[in-house]
Amino acid sequence: MLFELDFQSPVPIYKQIRDQVVLAVAEGRLLPGERLPAIRTLAEDAGVNNMTVSKAYQLLKSEGYLVTDRRSGAVVCRPSAPAGLDEDQMVRLRMLAGEAKLAGLSRAEFEALCGSLYHETEG
Amino acid sequence: MLFELDFQSPVPIYKQIRDQVVLAVAEGRLLPGERLPAIRTLAEDAGVNNMTVSKAYQLLKSEGYLVTDRRSGAVVCRPSAPAGLDEDQMVRLRMLAGEAKLAGLSRAEFEALCGSLYHETEG
Amino acid sequence: MLFELDFQSPVPIYKQIRDQVVLAVAEGRLLPGERLPAIRTLAEDAGVNNMTVSKAYQLLKSEGYLVTDRRSGAVVCRPSAPAGLDEDQMVRLRMLAGEAKLAGLSRAEFEALCGSLYHETEG
Amino acid sequence: MLFELDFQSPVPIYKQIRDQVVLAVAEGRLLPGERLPAIRTLAEDAGVNNMTVSKAYQLLKSEGYLVTDRRSGAVVCRPSAPAGLDEDQMVRLRMLAGEAKLAGLSRAEFEALCGSLYHETEG
DNA sequence: GTGGTCTAGACCACA
DNA sequence: GTGGTCTAGACCACG
User: Fold this and answer.
1) Position with higher pLDDT, B90 vs C121
2) Does the structure show a pLDDT above 70 at B1?
3) At D20, is the secondary structure helix, strand, or coil?
4) Residue A75 phi/psi, 5° resolution?
5) Are C9 and C17 spatial neighbours (Cβ–Cβ below 8 Å)?
6) Is the CB of C52 under 7 A from strand F?
7) Where is each HTH gntR-type domain found (chains A, B, C, D) (predicted)?
């Protein structure tokens, strides 16, 4: 099963789905060209509303991680024009850098940690 | 002025305040022991409600970035026992590592970026 | 009716709500997995503001007595990893032990009293 | 030094002073007939406002733990007519019994804990 | 429907 | 002066 949803999390469910798809792609568990389950299927499996899954898929589409083909449904794809992190992502990363510093990590430790997390995603 | 709030942002205002305080501490613009503005003062300056600021301060307190002295109000402090990133922070960082990868950054580039953001906070 | 609030009490209303929920759980009047009334419902029934109830619920959540399921609202739960009394609770108990002694109770009487109060909560 | 005040505690300072006097009496560190420091002295030593100490002393007086003699100042005394715990104390103890139960303590464990805390105060 | 957030006031306890 | 609490509304995100 691809998804582990936490209904008690403050993170919206559609966001959790989106996040887990992105991670799966980054880690190579989901390959470009591969099909995602149909909305109804996934919704039933995960015990959530169709609308919730639909929202997640639309978000993924708008971010370029997904294309919907009329015949084959939702298909994974890596962003066509990778252009570095966008502003929102930079803000989040900067925030984490600050928190890491206050949490006692040195710059080297923080870099190493980031690298190892990137590596993990090598799958 | 310490705070720049974006009232259009989906990020709650109390969270924006919290974030900016944390960043300010990390960047050395706010020193441990320094006093934060009184709730009412900040609320008026920023044009938001007292309770919004109050909520931000309580969040900061619960995270250990702030203590409220019964005599002198809100005082900045670095977490007494820095213990690395917590689980939530790790999840956020891991997510960013994945997104960075899909955005076309190499591991080295990502590490360098993280390092530079950490460095920025050296203030 | 689950709640009896005393608006004259110096104890904040949100704290009273929190206390009564905890007691109800301890006494078995509220079972793990059971739903608590919706914030608005409870607020209206009790004649208090939504935010007051909301604050009580958030406090209960932070203490692990409550989880809010994104689909079905507030659900009671016993702390997953019961780990004895925390420091604050120990301080309060120690204070009471001292007061009991000064109130003329012998050690045996105090123990018996504590036991009987625990027993009451067997519900 | 008799007092250790925590200015960052949510417990009011006057209440902390009152609590520590009561504990000291219960533990025998303060004996009936003994004099407490003058308000001004204590206030200066502890770095708090005269009013704060005064409030604590008045509270202690109203509870019967203290009498003020025009010549000798504030004098410790055990309550003249020990009459068991009052209603407020019972409520607090009952609350703790419930919390102890939810924290995983058995009735026997709770009783033993209460007993040991009482014993500690034997000093 | 749910909880989360916010406003524009207010009162109180504390120091 | 400070923070803590509360009210009576409101809007939004989520499912």
Assistant:
1) B90
2) no
3) helix
4) -120, 130
5) no
6) yes
7) 11-79
**Tell me: the pLDDT tens digits for C34-79?**
999 999 999 999 999 999 999 999 999 999 899 998 888 899 988 7
Of B5, B78, B1, residue with least CA distance to A104 = B78
End-to-end CA distance of chain C: 17
Mutual angle of helices A87-102 and B13-26, in 10-degree steps? 60
- Of residues B44, B91, B39, the one with CA closest to residue B60: B39
| Tokens found for residue A108 | 């080297």
Percentage of chain B lying above the pLDDT 90 cut: 74
B56, B21 contact by CB (below 8 A):
yes
- Kindly determine whether the C-beta of residue C51 is less than 7 Å away from any atom of nucleic acid strand F: yes
Q: What is the pLDDT of residue A121?
A: 59
Cα(D50)–Cα(D41) distance, integer angstroms:
9
Chain A CB within 8 Å of residue C68 CB: yes
Tokens of D11: 């417990």
Question: Which nucleotides of chain E does any protein CB come within 7 A of?
Answer: 1-10, 13-15
Residues in A 25-54 with any Cβ partner in B closer than 8 A: 25-27
Is B54's CB less than 7 Å from nucleic acid strand F?
A: yes
Chain A residues within 8 A of C71 when measuring between CB atoms: 7, 48
**CA dist., res. D34 & res. D65, Å (int):** 12
Cα angle B26, A19, A83; round to 5? 70
List pLDDT tens digits, range B93-116: 999 999 999 999 999 999 999 999
Q: Please name each of the domains of chain A with its CATH number.
A: 13-76 (1.10.10.10), 87-120 (no CATH)
Q: Locate tokens 């109050």: which residue?
A: B54
| Distances from the Cα of B47 to the Cα of A69, B5, B15, B17, D41, angstroms | 48, 9, 15, 12, 44
Helix-strand-coil split of chain C, %, nearest 5 = 55, 5, 40
Q: What is the 3-state secondary structure (H, E, C) of A4-56?
A: CCCCCCCCCHHHHHHHHHHHHHHCCCCCCCCECCCHHHHHHHHCCCHHHHHHH
Query: Which residues in chain A land under pLDDT 70?
Result: 1, 80, 120-123
Query: Other CB atoms closer than 10 Å to residue A119's CB: what's the count?
Result: 13
